[in-house]
Design a protein that fits this description.
Layout (H helix, E strand, L loop, with lengths): L4 H18 L4 H7 L4 H14 L19 H14 L3 H10 L1 H4 L9 H10 L29 E12 L2 E10 L5 E6 L4 H15 L4 E4 L3 H4 L9 H9 L2 E4 L9 H13 L9 H17 L2 E2 L5 E2 L25 H9 L8 E8 L5 E4 L2 E4 L8 E8 L5 E8 L2 E9 L3
Parallel strand pairs: 1-4, 4-5, 5-8
Antiparallel strand pairs: 1-2, 2-3, 6-7, 8-11, 9-10, 11-12, 12-13
Helix pairs in contact: 1-3, 2-3, 5-7, 8-10, 8-13
């Protein structure tokens, strides 16, 4: 019987080790060169002294004891199966309880998993074919991000409490450069979410797209077609706010990943006596996250708040960051006085088409073709100042399928 490929490979290595030893190389250096232990080198040397070349031939990886190969055990297993039509575990119980009847030693009885394999190999059990569901990627999720500062995700994490007081982490992350802005608040309001957005755009520039969920803090009342204060702020800054599909957090994967990191590396390993201490330690963690923590999405590099200084190999091109014309203080004053006007811009909604083929956009219900059931469509509202009715286009991928009117009710 010839040698297997595995045996030939190890035999060649063992011969080279003997040659190196005969040249006077120390066993330690030989072990380091061939990435084996020193004990292995000594064993090879000993085998060569005792049996010459024959001692260098390794044993094949065949188990010494293979109960499933014992003819009497295998034949008995198949006999019990054909007679009783029982499964592997029941056959194992019969073999153990009636081994004297069938003339089998207890030590030769295989495990129930081995019995199952015997039944499969002999056609007594047909292995079911696993049907793999072909997943078609969502068109709006896989579009490449060309440069930092293009798309930002925002969300609220609200599942923690500190001495009975809710801890709502409101955060925004640039999905390319991984820069994060976020703070914990006792309550989640449009005012607090807007403050985080103002801080982010003043620090890192205005993004072109802002992805948020459909919560009241970022969208206002879900059935009210008018735009809330947060959407007004996004329009005022020249940002297209995109509402992700309802109950599908996978569309905001980057901010959800940051929340997981915040839980694992900050919340779960710290103790906070007060909200002030929580805020102080949170600021220290954000500083660590931005300046010292390596990021898998940046090939284990650290994120840089200056988008133009991120290593060139990460992105094909850059866009000059856009910064607001007003200062942080002026924007916060405008926000606190509720004087943010409606400005020209776009607001988009992503919705997965249900079985009824009727999609809802903040109170507007639209019938779409039945062929789009299960797919994601995009509704874009083209906002014009001073108007109460806007044009709205419904898209599937890059195809414009319907034009409707979006009435705000003002």
């Amino acid at each position: 019987m010839g040698l297997s490929a595995y045996q030939k490979r190890l035999l060649d290595r063992n011969i080279q080790i003997i040659v190196r030893l005969e040249e006077g190389t120390s066993p330690f250096d030989v072990a380091k060169e061939y990435n084996v232990s020193v004990a292995t080198v000594y064993n090879i040397q000993k085998a060569f002294k005792e049996q010459k070349i024959k001692g260098l031939i390794p044993n094949d990886k065949i188990p010494l004891h293979r109960p499933q190969r014992l003819p009497d055990v295998e034949a008995t297993t198949l006999y019990i199966r054909d007679k009783t039509n029982l499964g592997a575990e029941k056959i194992y119980d019969i073999l153990v309880s009636e081994h004297d009847k069938y003339g089998i030693n207890l030590c030769d009885i295989p495990h129930s998993r081995t019995i199952h394999s015997i039944l499969q190999q002999n056609g007594r059990i047909i292995k079911p074919k696993i049907k793999t569901k072909v997943r078609t990627p969502d068109f709006y999720r896989v579009k490449d991000i060309e440069h930092p500062g293009q798309t930002v995700e925002m969300d609220i994490k609200s599942d923690h409490y500190l001495k009975g007081i809710p801890v709502n982490l409101i955060a925004a992350i640039d999905i390319s450069s991984k820069v994060v802005t976020g703070e914990p608040y006792p309550c989640q309001t449009s005012q607090n979410v807007s403050l985080i957005l103002i801080s982010h755009v003043c620090s890192y520039g205005i993004p072109y797209i802002l992805k948020t969920d459909n919560g009241a803090a970022s969208s206002g009342k879900i059935d009210d077609p008018s735009f809330g204060i947060f959407t007004r702020l996004a329009l005022f800054l020249g940002i297209e706010q995109v509402f992700i599909p309802i109950h599908e957090p996978k569309w905001n994967t980057f901010i959800e990943r940051f929340f997981g990191t915040w839980d694992k590396e900050f919340w779960n390993i710290n103790y906070f006596r007060s909200y002030e201490e929580l805020f102080r330690k949170h600021c220290e963690f954000i500083d660590y996250y931005l300046k010292r923590r390596p990021h898998q999405g940046l090939r284990k590099s650290k994120c840089n708040s200056d988008h133009t200084k991120i290593p060139l190999q990460f992105f094909d091109k850059y866009a000059t960051p856009r910064y607001p014309e007003m200062s942080w203080k002026a924007l916060t004053n405008l926000l606190s006085n509720h004087k943010i006007p409606i400005t020209k811009g776009k607001v988009s909604f992503l919705r997965r088409v249900p079985k009824s083929s009727i999609v809802s956009f903040k109170g507007h219900k639209i019938k779409v073709p039945d062929s789009l059931i299960g797919q994601v469509v995009k509704g874009t509202v083209f906002v014009e100042p001073g108007e109460s009715t806007y044009k709205m286009a419904l898209y599937f991928h890059d195809m414009r399928i319907k034009d409707i009117l979006y009435r705000t009710g003002r």
